[in-house]
Design a protein that fits this description.
Elements (H helix, E strand, L loop, with lengths): L1 H15 L1 H36 L4 E5 L2 H6 L10 H13 L3 E7 L1 H12 L3 H5 L8 E6 L5 H8 L5 E6 L1 H43 L1 H9 L4 H36 L4 H4 L8 H27 L6
Antiparallel strand pairs: 1-3, 1-4, 2-3
Length: 305
């Protein structure tokens, strides 16, 4: 009987404040969609880091004849065969190095023509103007500084470059966008909480006579609170369901179909469905608990009848 009464009161409350209930659903849905999107963005950045950092190389560029005339790092002349052997031997001894690949001037010229063949500069370049280099695969991409310290400024070495630095700029941009999404999410959560509190207060005020009578006849505080708390929880849970549906639809149309980014941007390792599904229980739990707690604290003053 008590459960039936509580359920009936929930239905009455939701219908009586239909407009505000709808506003709560929308605000909770939008805020939790942003919440889920920010979590997925973090996963995406970590996935991309793991994918790309595993492919980056540290490049030790060697001096050529042109560098000897113009670059102060190559003031002692072009790299010699003995210097190349010493550099390679030292690289092989380093524990952080997984693999070393040598790229000759002819190979560098060929790669440049393949990538920038349409550039006006490409027509004026010759193979002897290109730099020989050692492409180094590290066991840990974070250990770039070990190689840079060992070879930067060494005779025959023009420069040491880390491709990870380029990726760090990209990931910094993505992280900035993610924090911006979290800021908007926090603002939307505040709006949702304010709507929940106001909705509960209006509902409690409209039923103040009933709650007063219930207190006079000895009803417990929890029994009086339960319908209001569950109204907020149901509205929040509907909003959470909307957020989950939106995330699933977005993943389907943006990555798999519609925009089909997984096909158009095949160099990016996108997160899978498992990452999306793993976030849904957290979103639903948040959508249930957040409104319930907000309603509980908002109702405390209205139980002092």
């Amino acid at each position: 009987m008590r459960a039936q009464f509580v359920l009936s009161e929930i239905g009455v409350g939701l219908r009586r404040n239909l407009t505000m209930t709808f506003a709560v659903v929308v605000s909770v849905g939008l805020s939790l969609t942003l919440f889920g999107a920010s979590l997925l963005m973090s996963d995406q950045v970590q996935t991309m880091k793991g994918y790309w950092y595993d492919k980056v190389n540290v490049s030790v560029f060697l001096c050529n004849k042109s560098d000897a005339e113009s670059d102060p790092n190559c003031a002692k002349g072009a790299v010699t065969d003995d210097q190349k052997k010493e550099i390679l031997a030292d690289l092989d001894k380093m524990s952080v190095v997984e693999k070393v690949t040598y790229e000759s001037q002819d190979a560098a010229y060929k790669h440049y023509k393949e990538q920038f063949g349409d550039s006006p500069l490409a027509a004026s370049l010759t193979p002897d103007q290109m730099q020989e280099s050692y492409r180094i695969k590290l066991k840990d991409p974070e250990k770039y500084q070990v190689v840079a310290t060992a070879f930067d400024g060494r005779d025959g070495v023009q420069s040491v470059q880390d491709q990870k630095g380029i990726l760090d700029n990209l990931f910094g941009l993505l992280n900035g966008m993610n924090w911006a999404a979290r800021a908007v999410m926090a603002l939307m959560l505040v709006v949702a909480l304010m709507l929940i509190v106001n909705t509960v207060r209006v509902s409690a005020f409209s039923r103040r006579r009933e709650t007063g009578i219930m207190r006079l006849v000895g009803a417990s505080g929890f029994y009086i609170q339960a319908p209001f708390i569950m109204e907020a929880a149901v509205a929040g849970l509907i909003g959470g369901g909307v957020a989950c549906a939106f995330l699933l639809v977005s993943r389907y149309f943006i990555i798999d179909h519609g925009l089909a980014l997984s096909e158009k941007l095949n160099l990016i390792n996108f997160i899978g469905w498992d990452a999306v599904l793993a976030k849904l229980p957290l979103i639903l739990a948040t959508s249930l608990l957040m409104p319930a707690l907000a309603a509980f604290f908002a109702l405390r003053k209205y139980l002092k009848v």
